[in-house]
């Protein structure tokens, strides 16, 4: 078995590492499309490729669809239609026979350590992953460990691992002591080590790229972390070599094992690779195409539900048509439920859906922080730098409290004091443990609230940098107003509602916050936008430019807690322009809407609970309960994205399954807002949708397993399941299934319903490479809402078929 590749090896390595999707750290955890690196290929082709190399599922087992068919949740007519759409035979008997057959999993590429595993002995394949993972946890630690890993920047990741492994005493008990001597002969330079390992492994050229992907995927969680480091560096115009070095680490491990393995095991490994090369890949692709047909059939059924409910014409309004209050919410699917109920209890209110960053690409730096954090979609580079502003005395008080807390934690965890601390303070912790168990404490404090009282927090503002000229601020205000559709008839009160979640003992709490705000709450964005739109100079300039703005109109920031469904107004209530009576009516409506939203959401959490007060207590307790594994369902169930005037969906029950973005093409003559929607919020929604999808179809590889077993690693890097193994990514089983094991998320690709001209959408898709790949390779579906309410699905550029 010899390699015959003639291409530049570095191009091969780069292709492999680009297949890995990034994962964000816990303090800014955002949903990621786990198949991001494969978006340049058709969906079914990727499904066949990953199943036939890594053994990773991209499609649900056919038996799952057979059960849907049997229970009437899936119709054979839709299956046959989906087959025709994808160019397969629409033979009903053939499909019924196919659904009765057991799945025949394709042959996958074997890693050498797997063939070295022997029953009754410690697993070599597991040890390799553990050894790399332990090293990386120490190397990347962000302050969790009391002793930091000594690092030499000149050495790089691979060089540091090599030095670590040369002194690693765990090799001996595994029977791998000889590897240390062999590793001495390997260069400490990652590039040279990769080339040495590639030559030593001598993989046939046909299987070379696939095998390297299998190796990197075997430590895929940490590979995703290194991909994040590369992503962040490239966003700033730089680069980062750790992912390439991680590939070198894994390749060198494989090459070292090849040199020590018994001849019979080596021969078996060679034969299996040759067998994989000769295996019929066409059959694997055909099976993946059939699986995509079943997936598409389910999506057809969902799109039909939306099509039958969407409004064809605006409802007739009684009395004045101008709203007294306009409330802009994030497009998050959880906002859809609240918006619907808020409009129901306050008819003179108009709700608006817009991505939670409100169209301003900003980052935010608190007083005392060394670096800013991103508060806009992670796909885009922030261009506006917002600062925290407040009284110096409060800033210093927060710093002192946080410093005391950090010192106390350091003392509790230090080796010299652990026994004396337990002996001295143990009994004093009984009250704390009892309070935690009974949920008496508040939820975990978000970073922006830590060290502050509620009164002190209210004094802090989010201000735009003074360096921004009036012209730039006016341009930002115009973009926000245009994006929100507030080109005319602005109400006396405009509420800008960000969202966040209150939970405790939850490492992935940021994943419940706003994805459009880079895994942070939308508080900063709402405050910054409100301050900008209330600025007297900006308002004056807007009016001079012809904007229809009532001088008494007030923009108020607010935050929607998606765990308790409480909406708090965060400031601006002392504005002399504010209509106090209208504000009182709004606050009462927000409370009524919260109660109705809780009653609807509780059906998925506690189906037998009906009392309004009991429901509110239950929701609040879920956020405080340290043992609660399902504080809320977050975005489970998401399947649709709708960008259209609100009247299309007003009073339409979308069951919290749709990202709801307001858009009126008549107010967007240059289609700048549409371009932003399709190239930022839509792609963020795709990331969320595909993370839920991947976590359902293969939780072992694209999810993070059992939440109860999670342990935080590296401070904020991520979690391990148990005390070892690979870094886990994606969503836990408890975020997807109820306590009885039933799915709370149906695995569907995103269906985007957009009311805009087809030729304009075709142009936007063609001009944006990322969006073009997602749409043309069937990672999401775009559907046009025509002016008469008819729906047309995009099949290819210029080809739109009626639904």
Low-confidence stretches: 410-422
Name the strands of the widest sheet in spatial order. 11-10-14-15-16-17
- Main sheet: strands, sense, barrel: 6 strands, mixed
Indicate the structural class.
alpha/beta
Arithmetic mean pLDDT: 90
Overall, the morphology is: globular
Q: Calculate Rg over CA atoms.
A: 28 Å
Q: Report the total helices.
A: 30
Helicity range:
40-55%
Question: How many distinct beta strands?
Answer: 17
Q: Please indicate the percent range of residues in DSSP E strands (runs of 2 or more).
A: 5-15%
Termini Cα gap: 53 Å
Q: What is the fold's blueprint, element by element?
A:
Elements: H1 9-17, H2 43-53, H3 62-70, H4 76-85, H5 92-100, H6 112-116, H7 124-139, H8 156-166, H9 178-184, H10 190-201, H11 205-217, H12 220-235, H13 242-260, H14 263-278, H15 281-309, E1 325-329, H16 333-345, E2 349-353, E3 362-365, E4 373-374, E5 384-389, H17 392-413, H18 418-425, H19 430-438, H20 454-458, E6 461-463, H21 470-484, E7 493-500, H22 523-534, H23 536-544, E8 554-561, E9 566-569, H24 580-605, H25 612-624, E10 640-644, E11 658-662, H26 672-679, H27 681-697, H28 699-702, E12 710-713, E13 718-721, E14 750-754, H29 758-767, H30 769-776, E15 780-785, E16 791-796, E17 799-802
Parallel strand pairs: 1-2, 1-7, 3-5, 7-8, 10-11, 10-14, 14-15
Antiparallel strand pairs: 3-4, 5-6, 8-9, 12-13, 15-16, 16-17
Helix pairs in contact: 1-11, 2-15, 3-5, 4-15, 7-8, 8-13, 9-13, 10-13, 12-13, 16-24, 21-23, 24-25, 29-30
Care to describe what's here?
Helices cover 46% and strands 10% of the residues. With 803 residues, the chain is α/β, with parallel strands linked by helices. Among the domains are: 9-27 and 126-278, no CATH class; 325-413 and 436-628, no CATH class. A six-stranded mixed sheet has the order 11-10-14-15-16-17, sandwiched between helices. Strand 1 (325-329), helix 16 (333-345) and strand 2 (349-353) form a beta-alpha-beta unit. Helix 8 packs parallel to helix 13, helix 21 crosses helix 23 and helix 24 crosses helix 25. It is globular and about 85 Å long. 45% of the residues are buried.
């Amino acid at each position: 078995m010899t390699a015959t590749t003639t291409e530049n090896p570095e191009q091969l390595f780069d292709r492999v590492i680009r297949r890995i999707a990034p994962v964000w750290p816990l303090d800014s955890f955002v949903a990621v499309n786990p198949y991001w690196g494969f978006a340049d290929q058709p969906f079914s082709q990727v499904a066949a490729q990953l199943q036939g190399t890594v053994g990773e599922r991209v499609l649900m087992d056919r038996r799952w669809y057979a059960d849907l068919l049997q229970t009437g949740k899936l119709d054979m007519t839709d299956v046959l239609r989906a087959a025709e759409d994808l160019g397969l035979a629409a033979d009903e008997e053939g499909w019924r026979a196919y659904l009765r057959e057991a799945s025949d999993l394709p042959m996958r590429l074997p890693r050498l350590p797997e063939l070295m595993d022997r029953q009754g002995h410690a697993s070599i394949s597991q040890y390799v992953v553990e050894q790399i993972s332990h090293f990386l946890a120490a190397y990347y630690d962000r302050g969790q460990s009391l002793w930091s890993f000594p690092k030499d920047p000149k050495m790089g990741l691979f060089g540091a691992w090599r030095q670590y492994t040369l002194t690693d005493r765990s090799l001996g008990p595994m029977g791998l002591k000889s590897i240390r001597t062999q590793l001495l002969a390997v260069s400490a330079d990652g590039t040279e080590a990769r080339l040495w390992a590639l030559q030593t492994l001598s993989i046939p050229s046909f299987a070379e790229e696939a095998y390297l992907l299998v190796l990197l995927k075997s430590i895929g969680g940490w590979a995703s972390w290194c991909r994040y480091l590369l992503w962040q560096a490239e966003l700033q115009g730089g680069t980062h070599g750790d992912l390439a070095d991680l590939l070198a680490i894994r390749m060198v491990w494989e090459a070292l094992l090849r040199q020590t393995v018994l001849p019979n095991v080596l021969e078996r490994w060679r034969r299996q690779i040759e067998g994989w090369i000769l295996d019929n890949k066409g059959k694997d692709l055909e099976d993946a195409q059939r699986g995509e047909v079943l997936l598409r059939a389910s999506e057809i059924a969902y799109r039909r539900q939306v099509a039958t409910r969407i409004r064809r014409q605006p409802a007739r309004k009684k009395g004045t048509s101008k709203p007294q209050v306009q409330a802009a919410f994030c497009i998050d699917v959880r906002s859809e439920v609240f918006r619907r109920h808020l409009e129901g209890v306050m008819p003179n209110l108009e709700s608006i859906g817009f991505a939670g960053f409100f169209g301003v690409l900003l980052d935010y730096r608190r007083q005392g922080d060394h670096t800013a954090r991103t508060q806009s979609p992670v796909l885009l580079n922030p261009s506006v730098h917002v600062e925290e502003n407040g009284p110096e005395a409060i800033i210093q008080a927060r710093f002192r409290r946080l410093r005391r807390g950090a010192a106390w934690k350091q003392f509790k965890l230090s080796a010299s004091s652990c026994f004396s601390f337990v002996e001295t303070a143990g009994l004093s912790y009984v009250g704390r443990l009892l309070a935690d168990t009974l949920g008496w404490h508040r939820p975990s404090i978000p970073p922006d609230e830590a060290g502050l009282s509620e009164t002190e927090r209210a004094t802090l503002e989010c201000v735009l940098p003074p360096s921004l000229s009036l012209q730039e601020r006016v341009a930002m205000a115009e973009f926000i107003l245009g994006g929100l559709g507030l080109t005319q008839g602005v109400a006396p009160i405009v509420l800008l509602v960000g969202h966040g979640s209150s939970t405790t003992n939850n490492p992935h709490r940021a994943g419940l916050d706003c994805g459009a705000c880079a895994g942070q709450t939308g508080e900063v964005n709402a405050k910054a936008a409100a301050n900008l739109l209330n600025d007297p100079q900006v308002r004056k300039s807007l009016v001079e430019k012809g904007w229809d703005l009532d001088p008494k109109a007030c923009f108020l920031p607010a935050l929607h807690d998606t765990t308790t469904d409480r909406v708090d107004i965060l400031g601006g209530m002392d504005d002399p322009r504010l209509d106090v009576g209208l504000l009182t009516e709004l606050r009462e409506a927000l409370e009524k809407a919260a109660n109705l939203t809780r009653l609807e959401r509780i059906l998925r959490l506690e189906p037998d609970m009906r009392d309004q007060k009991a429901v509110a207590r239950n929701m609040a307790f879920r956020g405080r309960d340290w043992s609660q594994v399902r504080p809320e369902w977050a975005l489970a169930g998401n399947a649709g994205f709708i960008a259209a005037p609100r009247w299309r969906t007003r009073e339409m029950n979308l069951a919290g399954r749709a990202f709801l973005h307001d858009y009126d093409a008549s107010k967007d003559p240059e289609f700048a807002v549409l371009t932003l929607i399709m190239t930022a919020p839509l792609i963020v929604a795709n990331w969320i949708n595909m993370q839920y999808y991947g976590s359902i179809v293969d939780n072992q590889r694209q999810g993070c397993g059992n939440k109860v077993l999670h342990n935080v690693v590296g401070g904020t890097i991520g979690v391990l399941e148990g005390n070892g193994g690979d870094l886990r990514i994606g969503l836990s089983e408890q975020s997807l299934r109820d306590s009885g094991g039933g799915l709370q998320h149906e695995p569907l690709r995103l269906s985007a319903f957009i009311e805009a001209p087809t030729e304009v959408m075709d142009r936007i898709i063609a001009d944006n490479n990322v969006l073009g790949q997602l749409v043309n390779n069937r990672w999401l579906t775009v559907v046009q809402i025509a002016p008469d309410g008819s729906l047309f699905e995009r099949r290819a550029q210029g080809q739109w078929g009626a639904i």
